[in-house]
Specification:
single chain, 314 residues, alpha/beta, 11 helices, 52% helix
């Protein structure tokens, strides 16, 4: 098998058939053998029914259906585990990431054996300036505090050789941040620009809140810098408290009036707030260690549909 396409799906009934049909059209006479690995991440619409209908009329479609919604990270992991291609590509079902780009990625791997992965980044971001600013700030922060490098704007849309996929699926951590996992395993990665297209139907599943939670996953998962920062912040507050004490003695703050008492109260609230923030940071790390210690599965499969060729191989 030359190529596996891993396609996470959550409430994609309006686009999934168009994606399948368009990909087949683009790949016709250009890819010698390929498979679709669709992962239904607990969709609440008719995504699963649509995938089953596609499976019935095809000979290269696998369908993994979760028992509930486990999230895109779990869906990508499940797809990578079931993919068997020499090359494996993670791609969204909404046709914002075009199959033509996958062909471009394949040409790069075919022509340069030193490249293990081709990852795509948006040449021009089609989103609000505020969101774009926050994303740029996130990548700058991550590269400043993390031990692994994060390419600015690089997405999960990437094509990997078999040896890289095998290493990624060995990483069985419960809280997953694939951009970090792809960087952690190493391998030579080439980054190429691509133009994001309009969604074929539906709307984006990523809200500001979800992006913030996803960013926290990345920060907590790939650096312990926030924990170290709490130590330096504590030392800084001790120094600040000492300086304030000296200042208070000099100006006779022992007999301070109401306004000076307000300043003291404000300082106490500031110190208390900083303490609570860092307790929260420590709590985030402890929570992840707690969940990992339970050794719960990353996902639970309710149904798995494969194709005849793979059944024969098994």
């Amino acid at each position: 098998m030359k190529l596996s396409l891993v396609v996470p799906c959550y409430n994609e009934e309006d686009v999934i058939y168009n994606f399948y049909k368009e990909t087949k059209r683009v790949f016709e006479n250009k890819v010698e053998s390929y498979e679709f690995v669709f992962v239904n991440d607990g969709s609440k619409d008719k995504t699963l029914e649509t995938l089953k209908a596609i499976h019935k009329v095809s000979d290269n479609v696998k369908v993994i259906s979760f028992s509930r919604n486990f999230g895109k990270e779990a869906a990508m992991y499940a797809g990578l585990c079931k993919a068997v291609g020499d090359y494996t590509c993670v791609i969204d079902a909404d046709l914002q990431q075009r199959p033509e780009v996958v062909l471009e990625m394949m040409n790069i791997l075919d022509s340069d054996s030193s490249v293990d992965c081709v990852a795509a980044y948006q040449a021009e971001r089609k989103e609000g300036k505020g969101v774009s600013f926050l994303k740029k700030g996130f990548y700058k922060l991550m590269n400043f505090i993390s031990e692994v490098e994060f390419y600015p704007g690089a997405s999960d849309f990437r094509l990997m050789r078999r040896k890289m996929v095998d290493e990624v699926v060995k990483l069985t951590e419960y809280h997953r941040f694939s951009k970090g996992l792809f960087s952690f395993v190493g391998f030579n990665t080439k980054f190429i620009p691509y133009e994001v297209q309009q969604r074929a139907a539906g709307e984006s599943k990523w809200s500001i809140t979800k992006l913030f939670i996803y960013a926290v996953e990345g920060i907590v998962g790939y650096t312990t810098a926030p924990l170290k920062l709490s130590t330096f912040a504590g030392l800084g507050m001790i120094v600040a408290a000492f300086l304030y004490l000296v200042f208070a003695l000099i100006i006779g703050a022992v007999n301070a009036d109401f306004s000076e008492n307000i300043a003291v109260i404000t300082l106490l609230l500031l110190i208390g707030g900083i303490q609570l923030v860092f307790l929260g940071i420590i709590g985030e790390y402890l929570a992840r260690a707690y969940m990992q210690g339970k050794n719960r599965p990353i996902y639970i499969t309710k149904e798995f549909l494969t194709y005849e060729e793979e059944k024969e191989e098994e």
